[in-house]
Design a protein that fits this description.
2 copies of one chain form a homodimer. Chain A is of the alpha+beta class. Chain A has helices spanning 3-14, 22-27, 49-62, 114-121, 138-143, 151-154, 157-160, 189-193, 227-239, 252-262, 280-296, 308-319, 321-328, 346-358, 386-405, 421-428, 431-442; strands at residues 18-19, 42-45, 66-69, 86-89, 96-100, 105-108, 126-127, 161-167, 173-177, 202-209, 211-212, 216-223, 246-250, 271-278, 300-305, 332-336, 366-369, 374-382. The first copy, chain A, has a 7-stranded antiparallel β-sheet with strand order 15-12-14-13-17-18-16, sandwiched between helices. The longest helix of chain A is centred in the last third of the chain and has 20 residues, at 386-405.
Chain lengths: 457, 457
């Protein structure tokens, strides 16, 4: 293996867009999580699919690791160059290539960011629905199978990527899927690449589903005496076929913190934050129906509004949760968790997790995409304390074990990266070996994002 | 390779549930399509996942082909034992293992049929949405990535299979996915197996999404002066965010045939048949909105009703299309086609196809799942005429070429099987080689359903 020779050959191809300065390498060595830095040997700022293909051919010949880089907002260290090599910065490939309004799809390059796309679409009456919070690149969101608050209605990246262009380890440029809405023609390579975290190929173009902006939206929130009551309301709502657009759980601790941060006076009880999309009549009907359902579970203070300022107030609060945490726990490093279980097990796992956290010496407020059974407890490490980190790791470990015991998954939306590898065998059994077989078939030298997702030999 | 030795060893395992009589082999040698018969050497009626595992281990050792058999209703010859070997009859594995009402999912064995499942669910308020017409087995529907009239709203098998148990060629029993509604934990093996047509593994258990029975349903139909007007109405409806449950196109020729068969007097024009699901208020609102949209495209005779008998009348007509064809073209063999394109190209491809068929000497009325861009022209072969068959094959070929030229796929829902292999290279390019690499990694001896979907060396 000669990373050095790879660097020479790549710089012959893309000239000074291959950077080896310490400053730039350091920018591509960090993640938003608490993982240690890993410097790539060089950073390649690519401009085209053909360049990606050329670079991957070189890297396969030279046995040089390659890991794609987007906005660096991943939470499991996906984009860290664990074994050095090339960090492939995709952010120059930021063109929105074609909006097909009649078909409600769009073709984009992987460096296009989520907000950039929705700004571009604003006048079209269409929008791209997946919203993981961060203003991530769409290539990165596909690679990690991202989702967020709206996936209960509009789906995750899995449901919203129609087609891909990607480059294999040996430099072949592959097109998978098409703009047709469905197909039974062959293996679904698109769905295999979505969520493969850069280990099977580098995504160089995406065709994404768009949705029509609803005629009307309304937002609601209400409090519940218990977590169980909130979850039962969610189950009843989904069973009643209400096409709810957002359904977010916020625990009493977070409500308390938000009251301070956002100058609110909500009761310190578990809350649901909700959004309804549809026609004017339908959003009223949906809100009234959910209000009735919630009242059966002793909900209090049910408020809903289709006034834009009120809607914005509610969602601003929800989106500010992370900032509110950071302000409240100002001396803390935050560690995210990400389990997801069948909805019927959600109250139980949130209960047990809260209890476990309360019995520890650290804080861990909880919010959740409760319509999907996915929740995040954010664990607070004071002053980079080693002891707190150890406690957090243990709490997180027990949470993951609990999710698997209840028939769930260790990652609802953040991905595997480095952080969740240790649970893959338990979650997938011999299925994990099947993943390795596929990896070996498509990237026999293991140059693509080594050290992530798969068993490390 | 010793098929004979495999048969001896399998019969030692499952006793007289391994059948080698000509009568039973012949029952497993036919398809619903026009493909010639292929007799398996033996038929194994399996009772359990463990038996499937044992049989596959034997078949891998003995290099003996294995192909799963369900209801035999596939339309592309998927289940034909092209190279002989074992036909694995899955229909004894017909247990509905567990309904999880709160989570709206169900765990079934692969031999459970679609109607059996919905009968079983009747009292629960839940239903399984995928409806390909035939009363197929759920294992077969997953293997071929089936869909049908309701997929515009509820999705295809791809969206409705949450988790699988499957057995690999070497007999490993794999669980993929979970009952959690979403996951970012590793490669999506479930979506890889769905649509792999028995070439990567044998499905032995499925966890399926269920949907809540809507409070109200209404059905509608109306006529349009042109195909284009009908398609523009579809596009406008979807863009307006109407969550339409069914949206079926029926051409004027089919309307004429249905008038005779069902004693109706519809205008001989292109029609849309539609269904709306939701609350009582919402199905009225949806129908009125679509009526307004349709009127902008010169629709005539828009009728909608939420009365059950009227709904049933409309859908009975639509479901009777095949019988009506068979009665009208009583001396004919029917050949199905199955292209799917982006919706914006649908009017063009239906036009060109109709024109092509009119210029030929055979008949080919058209119906379509128009909300998905998928349509079927049924080509009529008179008295098993070789000449008609040749003309049909040429028409079908031009239709497939047209679909690919317009950015679509040669199969919207029937699958590849034998019939569509010749288009795989053109549709997928080097992506087809990637499929072969995956196949080789998981089934190196190619014992699983040889001769289908993949490049034949």
């Amino acid at each position: 293996m000669s990373i050095e020779r790879a660097i020479t050959r790549i710089s012959e191809t893309i000239g000074d867009r291959l950077k080896t300065s310490n400053a730039i390498r350091k920018e591509h060595a960090k993640s938003e999580a608490h993982y240690p830095e890993h410097l790539p040997d060089a950073v390649a700022f690519v401009n085209s699919t053909e360049e990606v293909s050329t670079i991957l051919k070189i890297c396969t010949t030279e046995n040089c690791p390659v890991v794609a880089w987007g906005t660096g907002t991943g939470l499991e260290g996906h984009a860290l160059a664990l074994n050095g090599g090339i960090s492939l910065n995709m952010m120059n490939m930021d063109q929105i290539l074609k909006v097909n309004s009649e078909d409600m799809d769009v073709v984009v390059q992987p460096g296009v960011k989520r907000e950039q796309l929705n700004d571009y679409l604003r006048a079209s009456g269409l929008f791209f629905s997946v919203d993981p919070g961060a203003n991530a690149s769409l290539g990165g969101m596909a690679a990690t199978r991202a989702s967020g608050t709206t996936s209960v209605r509009y789906g995750t990246m899995k449901e919203n990527v129609l087609a891909l262009q990607f480059v294999t380890a040996d430099g072949r440029i592959i097109r998978s899927g098409s703009r047709a809405r469905k197909s039974s023609s062959g293996y679904d390579l698109t769905k295999l690449i979505v969520g493969s975290e850069g280990t099977l190929g580098i995504i160089t173009e995406l065709t994404l589903k768009l949705h029509g902006r609803p005629e009307a939206m309304s937002a609601a929130l209400c409090a519940f005496p218990t977590i169980d009551a909130a979850v039962q309301t969610v189950i009843a709502t989904i069973q009643a076929g209400v096409p709810i657009a957002r359904m977010e759980f916020v625990d009493s601790k977070t409500i308390n913190i938000l009251n301070g941060y956002s100058k609110e006076s909500m009761d310190c009880l578990p809350h649901l934050f909700m959004e309804f999309h549809g026609s004017k009549a339908s959003v009223i009907e949906q809100a009234e129906l959910v209000k009735d359902l919630a009242s059966e579970y002793q909900a209090s203070g049910f408020k809903w509004s289709h006034r834009e300022e009120e809607r914005n107030r509610i969602w601003r609060m929800r989106h500010n949760v992370l900032y509110a945490y950071k302000a409240y726990y100002s001396n803390c490093t935050l560690i995210a968790t990400d389990v997801c279980v069948p909805i019927s097990k959600l109250a139980q796992i949130v209960h047990e997790t809260q209890h476990d956290i309360e019995n520890s010496s650290i804080a861990g407020p909880i919010i959740g995409h409760v319509g999907d059974g996915n929740f995040h407890s954010t664990l607070m490490i004071r002053n980079e304390s080693e002891q707190d980190l150890e406690i957090a790791n243990e709490l997180s470990h027990r949470m993951n074990e609990r999710a698997l015991r209840l028939g769930g998954t260790v990652s609802g939306e953040h991905g595997v990266g480095i952080g969740k590898i240790k649970y893959m065998e338990e979650e997938h059994g011999e299925g994990w070996d099947i993943m390795s077989s596929i990896k070996k078939a498509l990237d026999p030298k293991c140059i693509l994002n080594p050290g992530k997702l798969l068993r490390q030999n």
